[in-house]
Amino acid sequence: MRRFAVIAAALTLPLLAAPQAAAAGPSSGGAAARADTTAALERGGTAAAGERSGAASLADVIPAPVEVRPDARATFRITPFTVVQARPEHRAIGEVLARDLRRATGYLLPVVPVAPLRLPRIALATESGHGAEGYRLTVDRTGATIRASRPAGLFAGVQTVLQVTDGRRVPGGSIVDRPRFAYRGAMLDLARHFHTPDEVKRYIDEISRFKINHLHLHLSDDQGWRIEIKSWPRLTEVSGGPGTGVDGVGPGFLTQRQYRDLVRYAAGRFVTIVPEIDMPGHVNAAQVAYPELTCDGVAPPPRTDTAVGYSSLCISSETTYRFVEDVLRELAAITPGPYLHIGGDEAHATTDEDYLTFQARVLPLVAKYGKKAYGWHDIARSPAAKDAVAQFWGTTTTDADVAARVAEGMKVVMSPANKAYLDMKYDPNTPLGLSWAGYIEVQTAYEWDPGSYLTGVPESAVLGVEAPLWSETLRDLDDIEFMAFPRLAAIAELGWSPAATHDWASFRTRLGAYGPKWTSRGVDFYPSPQIDWA
What pTM, to 2 d.p., does this model score? Predict the structure, then answer.
């Protein structure tokens, strides 16, 4: 009876409303949650069916931690009496942890600011010395504590706990962890095929589990325009409507309200949205909607094929720069993150002279609206790119233009197409994807080093890594998941973990143990034959 009294007292503690940005999935708390706990108690602590598979040790985390000391004797057992302790300002993060554990156990797991001394708990606490995203996790028989200097570090620690628990136990020991690179990204192409806000949110949920902290949205291309620009409404009315996308089967666009909602949702998972408008090439959809963006004023025919390199804005026209500035101004106003991606790749229909003229005018416009210019590494041809971020997507290990700009201060995000492009087929039999950059199995995606990959680009110039997923062959969420996972986990480890921890044998073992987690959440991942799946 004493234990019932203790938990009853805990459940009467005041619970603050969680921020909307972190809300997702089934509602928690209230009468339904209390009923779940009562049922669990009546069953003698037997939990509801859920996510039962977890790592056997703290050493099994993906991405690999900086320091880990497992202790099999110090395992913490989650019971119907366990609480999540978090200060009011960290309650939303505590709810992320509690929500997943409720699904796995059926227990109430209330999030409380203060817990009675004897209650088992998973606690979130602040502690100096961990930087922006680092954390320290300690687990013993009495509970688990995640300590961090910033909320992003607490969230990273929560993801580690969710990986290693089987819903009943948290393996004992300690972890001290922090990221190698500040930028760890994934990219999703909404232009070739529009993916709904709910699909994007599901992708955000999954990538954040591996400490990915940026989602780059490719919002315009030859086949479609996917973001509302109020000063140029025909962009979405015409080029976001029926018949757009590859094969004409990918219509749709984000209203600015929907985009803002995605930004908020991502922020609740410590993911920053990076919007991309590709230019001066890849602009056929814009020119279909507004013929004045061509040099002859004649609208080109809509394109639903996968060819590239045939379109260009009219570089000598002031209408072009009015258009570009309007787009950047509206995007900057609805994007709290620091980056605006301006594309710049495969501008084969733009002369070299025009390309340099365009970049000299457009790159400073990004700064005018308070953002950092970001583009595919082709922008390094322009001297104006020295203050920008370039995303390297080549298939070689040398690029003289990139090296030259890096010497002037440019930073680089590494996305070599033959290593990090998630739309490349795994092997010749893969039903989805392309193969122009080669086949990319999990081992290929894992075995390279972003800090030393490109000649003339030292690790100090590497902002981070990103795994792009182009959607020419994708149609739904299952397709996204099949091409992204498990390779995205490999790229995530390269971005987070110290180079000294990179070991294929270890990674494939940890990845195999993670497979049941995907299965339990209904993620349609590719069961690579390179991995011994649990």
Answer: 0.91
Report how far residue 22's alpha carbon sits from residue 9's, in angstroms, rounded to the nearest whole number. Answer: 27
Q: Is 346 among the residues known to form the active site?
A: yes
Angle at CA of residue 42, ends 40 and 47, nearest 5°: 25
Strand partners, 341: 276, 374
Domains annotated for the chain, with CATH where assigned, are: 2-177 (3.30.379.10), 183-521 (3.20.20.80)
Close Cβ partners of 151 (under 8 Å, ≥ 6 residues apart): 89, 90, 93, 270
* Count of alpha carbons within 13 angstroms of residue 397, beta-carbon side: 9
Number of H helices, E strands in the chain: 16, 19
Q: CB of 363 within 8 A of CB of 343?
A: no
CA dihedral 277, 278, 281, 285 (to 10 degrees): -50
Three-state secondary structure call for residue 233 = coil
Residue ranges of alpha helices (H) inside 14-62 are 30-42
Residue from 185, 136, 178 nearest 161 by CA:
136
SS (HEC) of 291-313? HHHCCCCCCCCCCCCCCCCCCCC
Q: Which of 346, 441, 466, 493 is catalytic?
A: 346
Closest CA to 390 of 413, 371, 372, 358: 413
Could you read off the pLDDT of 484-528 as tens digits, one per residue? Answer: 999 999 999 999 999 999 999 999 999 999 999 999 999 999 999
